[in-house]
Amino acid sequence: MKFDRLLNMIGEEKFLTIKQKRIVVFGLGGVGSFAAEALTRSGVGTLYVVDYDLVEETNINRQLIALESTIDKYKVDVFKERAKDINREIKIIGYKVKADKDTIKEILQIGFDYVVDCVDDLNAKAEIAMYCLNHNISLISSMGFANKFKPEMIKIAKLNQTSVCPLAKVLRKKLKTAGCSLDFNVVYSEEKPATVINREILGSNAYCPSIAGLYMAAHIINEIVGEKS
C-alpha cells in the first residue's frame, strides 16, 4: 500500500488525522510545488492550491511541476493531475487566480486547518497573514530563497525571531504598521543573499527553494502527529 511506510511510523489513528485535514497552498513555484507534493504524499485528504500562472521554461531549474512537457500549461492544472496520480483518493481543488485581498478572503473563508503561504507578492503575504491571525488559522509562510546557496542555513521560526532575511524584515515592518501580530511561523534563510551577475533577475537553484518547501510540509505533518519539527 502506498502509505505503509508512513503508517509504520505513526500508526492508523494519526494517519487518519492527517487524512481529515484541509490545507491550502498559495503559490506553486519553487517552494510551494514541493510543499504541496510532500503534503499529498503524506496523505492529506483535502488540498487546495492557488496559482494564476503558467509554467515557463525558466521554471524548470527549480519547480517540481515544470517540465518540457508542461510549459505553457497552468500550474494548478499540472499539479492537480500530478496529485491525483500520486493519490487518487485526494480531494484536490485548484484556483487559477492571483492572490490579492479579495481572492484571499474568498478562499480562506471556506475554512482550513493550515495555510501554506508560498507567494512572492509582499502585499499578498501580508493579507494572508492578517486574515489567518484574525481568524485563528494555523499559518506557515515562506520568506525569500532567491540568490541563496546554503540549504543548511534554512530555519523555521516566528516572524519576530528571524534575522538576515530581507523579505522577513520588510514583512515585519508592514505588519507592524498594520497593527498585526508577528507571532506566526515562517521558513527563512540566515544566509546573506549572493551577488548575481544580472541584478535585474533573481538567481535561484534546484535545492534551496525545494528544501524550504519540504521544511514547511514537515512542520505541518509533524505538528499534526505530535512530533517536534
Using only CA atoms, what is the Rg?
17 Å
Helix content: 25-40%
Structural class: alpha/beta
Element string (H = helix, E = strand): HEHEHEHEHEEHEH
Global morphology: globular
CATH superfamily: NAD(P)-binding Rossmann-like Domain
* CATH top level label: Alpha Beta
Main β-sheet description = 7 strands, mixed
CATH topology: Rossmann fold
| Ends distance | 26 Å
Can you describe what's shown?
39% of the residues lie in helices and 15% in strands. It has 229 residues and is an alpha/beta fold. Strand 1, helix 2 and strand 2 form a beta-alpha-beta unit. Helix 2 packs parallel to helix 7 and helix 5 packs across helix 6. The longest helix is centred in the C-terminal third of the chain and has 18 residues.
Short description:
The protein is built from 7 helices and 7 strands, in the order αβαβαβαβαββαβα.
